[in-house]
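Kindly draft a sequence, keeping tokens residue-aligned:
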Amino acid sequence: MTYPTYHNLIGGQWIPAVSGKTILNLNPADHSDVIGAFPSSHAEDVAMAVAAAKKAFATWRLVPAPRRAEILLRAGNNLVQNKEKYARDMTREMGKVLAETRGDVQEAIDEAFYVAGEGRRLFGVTTPSELQNKFAMSVRMPVGVVGLITPWNFPMAIPSWKLFPALVAGNACIIKPATDTPLSTYNLVQALVDAGLPPGVVNIVCGTGSTAGAALVEHPDVRAISFTGSSAVGSLIAQRAAATFKQVSLEMGGKNAQIVLNDANLDLALDGALWGAFGTTGQRCTATSRILLHKGIAAEFTEKFVARAKKLKIGNGLDESVEIGPQVNAAQIETSARYVDLAIKEGAQLLCGGHALTEGPYAHGTFFEPTVFAGVTPSMRIAREEVFGPVVALIEFSTFDEAVEIANSVDYGLSTSLYTRDVNRAFTAMRDLEAGITYINAPTIGAEVHLPFGGVKHTGNGHREGLGALDFFTTWKAVYVDYSDKLQRAQIDNAE
């Protein structure tokens, strides 16, 4: 079997891991399809990448922001030209269907064009001084060398959310892609390199979280870490980064609820629930893993939802007729199966699915049936813990206030959704649902790049992707210019 071997990108050079070891990148729909061998990096590789980034930062920070933005604009155009190729690469390594991987690349394109515009909007503030003949202002400064740790479910879109704002702000970056999906990050960075990004400004170090990721978090010359992944790992990163006073942006798990009231457009709510629950095979932090149904419409909704879930076509995402691809690896299959067992033991009613698919066209991949549970109570683990698979819990409620209470009862707070024709309840939900994102008459998935993305509680630590990303990747500097030609003392010489 022949397949390409990839290296780390360090200081503009493609370099194998010091250990010489590699990790195979397999197609989750067909494990005989090897996308390539990628470096298994350790602390030594990370140290070289940090040194290269630190050197590049010295000159990159001095490039005017509008010039930095022009590189991003060209990179966006490069992505446009290669959209279909990159989408197919992503389907092979991640599994989700082509319609979704095209959307993943499109999101990176949108992010490139959006952030390119920010190159002329890195605004500061001028303000009056309390003293005569003194000028006061504040300006944004780059943080320095930043580490980016990205997940496998959106292997180009999420890296773009981090890389592009970091770059336009003048930072130098080391990105560690997920071990399951590194090629899409390589493609993204190649678009930047082809656009004229100077060597060392972006470096790629592949490897596991416990080796390359940990070394990146702990390196003293890395001044900030932006991480997307599980809440458990995010907690560890925050603790380790604190030792060297790094600022940390965490975008983590979700247990997202779609609420359907009895006045909702049921057909629209069904469309949204099906897409939110089973899009990306349920492997989104914003996936609709709980559907809260008013008792008056629960039976009708459930019957129609299960019927449609059973009809979804499962298979290799490169087949345009397929609606649901594989889960990304065997560990995710094991997690889905474990939660099915837990739900049944706790008394939930399995309405469809619940099993891995292992025979015929599924024999060489990691596939799991769309799975629906009814009779779920808010206290069950299937209703409280993130599954990250095509498993959804149906929960009934009697009143709007009860629905909001159930939605808010979990540890997470990323995305919420409400289907209703009642504008008063819609605005009440927007106010009262504990989440970083609330959709009205739309599913829990579908964020756009120019709005803030992130959550509350165990979902995040207050920072945001999209609108707000520049606040993380810059620091404020206050500047005073005294042209009085004499010593003036603030808070003293201005006193009455």
